[in-house]
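Hey, why these numbers?
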Amino acid sequence: MCSATEKFVKLHQWNFEVKSMGMTLVEQVFQLPGKIAGLTRQYTVARIDDTGNFLYVGTKSGELMVFSIIHGIFRYASLICGHGICSLSTKGEYIYAGGGGLYSCSITFIN
């Protein structure tokens, strides 16, 4: 399970602790490189790929950001839509992103 604030993207996992014989929720903040770590973003949509290895996040400014779930780090960002990303879907090695302005909509296929 993942969540985001304006400054952080977080991974949440349930772990079983033998000591307490119960589940605890562990939170890990994805590491961002220094040049973009201080930037605030409004995240609009997120999707974990079919393998569970990558988290794809769309922003209101139209950026697609990719995070590695296994390593807990930021991997890539690209501006793919001018007026924000509204939806994301994955199928195999393809990412489908939908977005646009009030009167326009675009679908981008990313391989």
